[in-house]
Amino acid sequence: MKFAILASVALCLALSALSAEARKNGPPMKHPPMMRPPPKMMAPMFPPAPMGSVVAQAALGPTGTVMSMGKGMVRLVMGPNSMHSLDVMLMGTIPNVTMAHVHVGDNNTAGPVALAVLPYLMALPLSTINPAVSFKGELMFTVPFTSADLAAFSGVAGVTPAAAEASFRQLLSQAMLYFNVHTMMYPGGEIRGNFACVAKDCAPMM
Ligand SMILES: *[C@@H]1O[C@H](CO)[C@@H](O)[C@H](O)[C@H]1NC(C)=O
Ligand SMILES: *[C@@H]1O[C@H](CO)[C@@H](O)[C@H](O)[C@H]1NC(C)=O
User: Fold this and answer.
1) Do residues 170 and 72 share a domain?
2) 80 and 7 within one domain
3) Whose CA is nearest to atom 3 of ligand 1?
4) Which pLDDT tens digit goes with each residue over 96-110?
5) Sign of torsion, CA 27 29 60 134?
6) Whether residue 131 sits in one domain with residue 183
7) Which region is the signal sequence (predicted)?
């Protein structure tokens, strides 16, 4: 906590130093932030996962030709009693976030949505946050969801929550789930990352 405050103070100082620099050197460059490396990823302090959970993590970043000053870390906790959660930490600068989803696909594929995170568990068809959300610094939030939510997003009519959860867990064990943050600039996704289980073979944490 204290470190986060210090870090944001340091960031403010760095930013004001930058703008002072820009004033000194005449008109500011069009995209000065692009020249700076994105902030270093800190290991986020997520609360401990309940015993028996399957835990996976995804490191989010831009892929392909996307230029982003954003990064992220997401922890997926599949609880033992169909009570699940996503701990999302976004860092850096991301303008106009419109949606965030868990999708089905490998590292290099854009696939269908398995769960809507932003807007929060909004039923299909997909909708966007309106107005879009922009932030600088750190944005951390936790999204609880259940097997019933997975069934609602599965796209399979009449699927039971248990079956939807089983197939979601199987996709996870095959590294076929990724987290994707959509923005106005990059409607197809600005930062993304595939989930990898923390334990070998996606074994539950004891
Ligand atoms: C963000 O949205 C605002 C308002 O629509 C727009 O003026 C601005 O250009 C957008 N910026 C980016 C990077 O998409
Ligand atoms: C895919 O992404 C996962 C999670 O980030 C990573 O562990 C794995 O090495 C990647 N696989 C390939 C083939 O790049």
Assistant:
1) yes
2) no
3) 96
4) 999 999 999 999 999
5) positive
6) yes
7) 1-22
